Amino acid sequence: MHLLQGTPHLNRIILNPPEMNMAAVEDLELRSVDITSAFTNGDLDQEIYMKQPEGFHIGGPNKVCRLRKSLYGFKQSARQWNKKLHSVLTELGFKQIESDRSVHIYSNGEVRIIVPIYIDDITLASKSPAAIDKYVQLLSQHFKCRDLGATRFLLGIAVERDWPTRTLNLHQCQFILDTLEKHSMSDCKPVQTCYQCFPES
Fold this sequence. Notes:
By secondary structure, the chain is of the alpha+beta class. It is 26% helix and 28% strand. It is built from 5 helices and 12 strands.
């Protein structure tokens, strides 16, 4: 697996775990799924009230709203979403591995599905496209999902597969192009830069 100038934090969490190496070596299909408004799926286990939002008023000015679902911005939103997703995956037969709590595995006979998760970005890896289709459909019964198809990007990092050699190429070419465009340098010309090498002490 090859990576060009990757972001160290993302490389550690997403791009260099054993699951990606396994996907390349074992020719696993990779499918990306995005959960829409993930944090709002979290169930609250305590009473939380908020002021009525601007433009929405019921009753007097001192009336407040009791929240039934988690919202973005709460300190506990990420935890409640994680608990909700874990409970759904457990219900579907997945088990959370002890060495990496962000990875769930389903295994039944010859069918095995590996699911690494980064907040609301879910990747399903399996040799069985039919099994992936089935569990994408099952997930969509619990959450509003966007099936992104075969994995082409993970957190902005492009994923290119070379099936004959069983390798994955990871790069950030588009990020580099977007950065050049952002700083009005997309038409800049490359120049040689002198670099003085210092002997190792």
